[in-house]
Amino acid sequence: MKQILYLEAPTPDTAAVRHWLQKEWTPHVGEKVVTPDGLRLQFPQQKGDRELSLFVWSFQRTTYLKLFQWGSESIAGTSQICQQLTKEINKRFPPEYPEPPEIDLSQESIFTALEPYYPETVRYFQKMPQGEYDLQRVYWWEKGWRESVRNPQKPKQVIYQQEHRSNSTQELSTSPNYDLIYIGGALGVIHGAVMAKLGYKVLLVERLGFGRMNREWNISRSEFQSLIDLGLFTEAEFTSIIASEYLDGFSKFFDGNNPPHLKAPVLHTPTVLNIAIDTEKMLNLCAEKLRDAGGGNLGANGVYSSRYWFHPGNGAIARLSGGRTQTSHRKIAGRCHGQCLSHCLATQWLSRL
User: N or C: which terminal CB in the chain sees fewer CB atoms within 10 Å?
Assistant: First the structure.
């Protein structure tokens, strides 16, 4: 038996998916035989005992589907069946994302407003140290994302330079230039601090305070050693940002139905991802090192507030949008690194953000 297809239908109504497969869906080849959890496809025109078996099940508001081939001999038309089934089930059960409810936070808290719609989400956010604030951010991010998809607009300019005139010449100062501009201060501040230490001119743009994403970072000593070898951290600094260190970890694959001679041994991993990092302390330490090395950072404490970064050498002021509009917009050039979900995106040369 070999699995040849795996699909997810974004609906908790598994009975509806099963009914559609059994009663409405018509494969291009093969004869359907209904089963309690799906169906079988038989191919009497082909030699041998060749058959496909399809079944569905549900978990956490999603219906899952798997298609298996019985026997070792290939079945003509299998790829066409997979393509047809994938296309038609996605059309019949398309993704549906209900609109978040309209709320008025001047009248009630975010917990009270969302609890009737997302009770489990509210329950878990209530357990977080800054859960109310973080849930508000999640809500407005979701609203903003949906609006940007429905009504795409040209991105707003977020970095400006203030005009600065020399007392003697009354000429505008030259535009500030950076070797590297980082958008996002998680992995961005780590990489930026290293590059600033190596002599590059770096600007970091961060809308929020560092370490505010309730993230958990685990690392191995051998992995962190590379940052020590680069001179970004000392051994003592590394020790100071360790939140917890585990003695051992292990993995065990389920083998309850296997005979004794086929049971898998326990895989111990005492040195793999066994150190939990205090991310807020680590990122703020990197920010200090970036500044000490001559880099600059642009940050803010909240979604709509602004902070300014002053470059001591050329008088440039970079700031987040949200405050007053500058009277003159000058170029800030550099190689820009965008960060999303802790992955660095491709770099590109920009003359203006």
Answer: N
Q: Could you tell me which residues come within 8 angstroms of residue 54 by beta carbon, excluding any fewer than 6 positions away?
A: 21, 38, 39, 40, 41, 65, 66, 67, 68
Name the H helices within 181-310: 187-197, 221-229, 235-240, 279-292
The CA-based angle 51-57-59, given to 5 degrees, is 150
Query: In this predicted structure, what is the pLDDT of residue 149?
Result: 80
Q: Left (φ > 0), alpha (ψ -120 to 50) or beta: where does 179 sit?
A: alpha
Is residue 277 a contact partner of residue 243, using CB atoms and an 8 Å limit? yes
Q: Are 205 and 298 in contact (CB under 8 A)?
A: yes
Q: How many CB atoms lie within 10 A of CB 162?
A: 17
Distances (CA, A) of 122 to 126, 131, 336: 6, 9, 37
Residues paired with 50 in a beta bridge: none
β-strand 275-277 against 217-219: which pairing, if any?
Answer: antiparallel
Say if pTM beats, i.e. exceeds, 0.85.
Answer: no
Euclidean distance between CA atoms 53 and 325, whole angstroms: 63
Q: Which residues contact 45 (CB under 8 A, 6 or more apart)?
A: none
pLDDT score recorded for residue 296: 57
Question: Regarding beta strands 333-340 and 177-183, do their DSSP bridges make them parallel or antiparallel, or are they unpaired?
Answer: parallel
Q: Which has the closest alpha carbon to 334: 173, 164, 163, 183? A: 183
Question: Is 305's pLDDT higher than 70?
Answer: no
Which phi and psi angles does 113 have, rounded to 5°? -70, -35
* pLDDT of the residue at 210: 67
Look at residue 88 and give its three-state secondary structure: helix
Cα 80 to Cα 68: distance, rounded to the nearest angstrom: 14
103-112 pLDDT tens trace: 999 999 999 9
Mean pLDDT of 89-103: 89
Alpha-carbon 56 to chain mean position: 29
